[in-house]
């Protein structure tokens, strides 16, 4: 398992961490949390994330039969979602998400067979910079995940914020961090987001990285057609190779990044994995139409049937005379509140 050493200032009397001082590496690992999809976070925490009703929602989607989804990819997209920042994870000293985001697979039809071709996305950014923040600088991370540039003013801020008066009680220690220690800090993720917005806006390596952390978008094709959650989506992948489609079909290698021929270029377009037919259009739904589902107060989801409904009524221990049917229309703020309670 990957481990990373960092310098910590600890209050030995009260046995608590005051702050950690590090370069870009440790801050980048923390910021990767802000770009992870909720489905990935729930999975990493063993479906015991304490993130409102998301644990129950994840478990119920996991239990749904594949026949309820439009394609085989749909269920996997929900349970193992990609991150829009996934291409940057390779630069992390401790990787939170082990999904390979750099390879894009294309399918081309030969007569009587299918040829799978791999396209590796290119890297970008200065080599001295980190995945998200600028390199060549020191940063301080408090125990509650507030992050600030390492300077004298912020040192005093951190000491006062932690209620430290006697600096003789503080000592420096070098500690190793791994995935388990980083994940244990997830309860303070709100402080991390606020401090990056307030204190670290000018320290991102690019405006694109700043937006990726503070206002993350979904990967291509992950949003739905109704846009109820008003989520933005990255532009779908499209590129070109210096090779005609005929020569690509005759390619014996699975990687086409370096394939060339003199006949022309071929455009590469990603297609929507949620749709059974080949299309480059975004949107559509994960489940088949017409689909009808039973959603419990805890956000458990199951195919609707009278038997499933009766089973839920038994769990609630209500008499029939206490029950009534009502029709509700949820606004987006109400929907968000239900998810987090």
TrEMBL record:
The lineage of its organism: Eukaryota, Viridiplantae, Streptophyta, Embryophyta, Tracheophyta. InterPro entries: DUF674 (IPR007750). It comes from Setaria viridis. This is DUF674 domain-containing protein. It comes from the Eukaryota.
